[in-house]
Every structure is written in structure tokens, then in C-alpha cells.
Amino acid sequence: MQIQYAKKTNSLILEELAKLRGEFKKIKTREIWEYPESVRNHPLSIDLDLCTKQGFLGIYDTTITEVGFQTYLKRFLQEPIEDPKLQSRAEEVRDILNKNSTYAYHLLRKFLVPDTEPNEKVSLPPVQKEDSFWKKRRFLKVFFPIWGVFSPIYLVLGLLFDLPLLPLFLLGNGILFVSYRRDSLKQWKEIKALSSGATRFQKTFIYLAKERKTTKQMIGQISSLGDSSELLISPLPHLILNLLCLWDLWKIKSLEKWKNKFANLWNDLQIQILKTDSLLPFVNFGFLFPEARFAELAPQGTISADSLVHPLLPKSSRVFNPLTPMEPGDLMIVTGSNMSGKTTYLRSIAMSLLLAGSGAPVLGSNFKFPKFKIHTLIRSQDSMEDGVSFFYSEVRRLSSIIQTAEHSDQVPVLFLDEILKGTNSKERYIATREILSVLREKQTIVFLTTHDLKLAEISWAKRFHFTELEVGGQMDFDYKIRNGVSGSTNALKILKKEGIPIRNEEE
């Protein structure tokens, strides 16, 4: 077991180093289809590549519990978390990181589960305090301890001294066993689930507990009770024990005593483990990148930053860019040549918002954000099955965003990349202008990238651009944002570089 634990710890360290270096292909992440359908088809997941093999959700997923994983996904996607016990304060990630320099790392190690595969999620159930088994058998609860002691004594004496009624005793115990067999199996199922959870999370329980001695007793007793369930694999010994002494009832009684003594402690630690498990991906992000800074909530609804960068860019490739203050109703139009960094800049802002909204630190400085509702329209999808074109898909999404903005108490923030690509330039300009006007009325903060320079003439827009540089006759990109509208294009240069002839370039 110790060797296996050491191997798991070594694997953890190697994966952490891969994250630091940006070598994401070395990390074993989930396939897209392994995410819940609601997550992989979420607009944010599609537009920000969150569920791809090298997407953020997989790269930084450290969760090992089913509930922790689901809560982590919802927290990052800014979806509501139904269980109020699993909701966390915005400062909780900061609190964990601030405890000491190695606390976050030790939490990760304690959460390692030696007998699970990477990306496998395990269950950690709560203790169900309501006991329906004895509620339906109040007389049996009082009667069975007497009968369960008397019966085996009589059977042993009967065999020794040839006492009468032995078959009747066995028949009576058999009828009793059949009467509670179905419900006792449910109790055994709970025992096995609790015992399995105690074994898997023993180190974590003890590490997080304030009363460690009591916690060890709790784990030891339920683990011992769980060992008894091994007899269920062999039906004959299990039947004989119940015929002799109503064995299941004694174990169910032991479970009840354990619950009465430890239920509150177990449930408190279980919630703490699930919450911590769901927060550790964000804690780990901050632990790996101590240069990341926590964002500041801006009550007036402003989004701004002195600098920010996409969290999945390796350190060697990071180019930090500022974000000019954007208030409700503002529009930023970003123009620029192909591959210059326009869409990456939008995704950097969106990812920084999601990290800040999750309570995680942000790669950048002085990032300020409001209570927000994020929308993206970066990668439209058509549907052959529904007969929906790219254009109509965009229109439906935009209509939904506009309607949502009307009923929101949060600042709507919308990211648009090359809006309404599926129509001609004249109609696209008119439609886009009117849509942006409506969004301004709805007090939506809009970020828009476009190659259509006519759109940049919209009067209330804040204009920025990216461009390429000529170095030795070759295109070179510095990925720095600049004020104003782009004056350069590079589509023809790219075509010629790839061997496609352009015969009438002057036209």
C-alpha cells in the first residue's frame, strides 16, 4: 500500500510539473464524452474549449468524489449549486492558500486515493439518520436481543441433550430472516458504502478533523462493521448465522449505535471533504501560480485590469494585455489581422471572469469585475438533425441572451467573435448595429472581434486592435493590444505563404 501511495504521489508531482510547463499532453484528462451532457454541450464549454483534452476543466480537475466533481463544474460554469451546504464563500480559496505555503499541496496528497484510476470519481455518502428498518419493526427491536441470545444457546444445548423443538426454532428463525431479508440488504448496502468511504478517505478525515481521536474511532468502527459484509458473498454461512442468532439484526443494531454516536461528526466532515474537493482545482491553480492575484469585486459594475492573460498559455508564451474599464452598456470592438490574437484576448477576459467568479486567483493584475452573467458566441454550431444553419443558430442564441438580460440582476457580459458570419456584408452590418444597440439598452457589456472595419465606425464603441509585424520579409506577431482600428490585413500573405497563387492581388 505504501509503495502504491508513493507511486500516486510521484504521478501527482509529475502532472503538476507538466501543468507548470504547459505540457498538457502529458496529463491524462477526460474524453469529451466523459463529461455530463449538460456540461459538454454548455455554450461556455464549446466556445472556450473547456472540455477538450487540453481544456481547463480537465487539466485542473483534481476532484476524486462524484459530488465534488459536479460541484466543481457548476462553480466554474457559474451555474447554481442546489445544495446550500456545498455553496462556498468567495474567500474560501484564498483562505486555504493563505494558511501556509504547503497546506494546499498536503491537501492534494491526502485526497489521493491509492486504488482508483485517474479521473475516476468515487462516492462519499452522508449518514442517513432516519432509520426506516426499525421504524417498521418496533416489537422486533425489543424482542430480538433476548431471542438472539436464547436461540443459539437452546440450539447448542438441544444438540447436546437432545432437547425437543429444534426444527421449530430453526423454522421460526428462518421465517424471521425472510421477513427482514430485503430491508436488511439495504442496510448492508449502506454499511458497505460508509465503510468504503471511511477506508478511502481515512487520511483526509483525520487531516481535516479537529477531534482526531474520536474520528479514528468512527472510522475504525464502521470499517470493522464493513468487514462483516464480506459474509454476504457466501450465502450459506450468511444463512446459517441468521438461523442461529439473527446475525443481520445484531449488525443493524450496531449500525444504529454507530449512527447515534458519530452521525453528526461524519456528516460535518463529509460536507467539508466534498466542499474542499470541489475547491481544490482552484486552490491548486493558485498554488501552482503564486504570481496569480485575486480579483476585486466592483460594485459599480466595472470590468477592468491592468494586465491579464489566458490561464492555459505556458509561461514562455504569455503576453499580458490590459483591459480598459468597461461599464454596463459599453462596447469594445477588437479588429486585427488573422492569427494576431483577437479571439485569444476575448477568451482571456472570459476565462479570467470565470476564475474570479469561482473564487480563484487570476493571471494578471488589478482585475476588477462585477456580479455578472456571462454569455459567449464564439463558435456557432449548426444542426443537420434540427435543420438549423449557422446563421439561425447565432440568431437564436442572441435572442436568448437579449431576453435573459431583461430579467437579470447581474451585469450581462457578452463575448462575440465575428458575429453573423452566415449573411452578406450589408445585412450583417445593419443587423449587427441594431443588435448592439439593443444590448446597449439592456446595459450589457459587449466584447466583439471583427474583420469588418465598417462595424468599428459605431459611435459608442471603444476601439482596439492587434496587428502583425514585418521581420525580414516574414510575418511576426507580438500579440499586444493597441488603441484604434487595425490598418493591416494578412489573408493574402497567408495564402501565398501556403503556396496558393494570388494572380490579381491589386484588385
From TrEMBL:
Gene3D superfamilies: P-loop containing nucleotide triphosphate hydrolases
Keyword Acyltransferase among record annotations: no
GO CC field: cytosol
Keyword line: ATP-binding, DNA-binding, Membrane, Nucleotide-binding, Transmembrane, Transmembrane helix
GO MF annotation terms: ATP binding; ATP-dependent DNA damage sensor activity; mismatched DNA binding
SUPFAM superfamilies, per database record: P-loop containing nucleoside triphosphate hydrolases
UniProt name for this protein: AAA family ATPase
Organism: Leptospira bandrabouensis
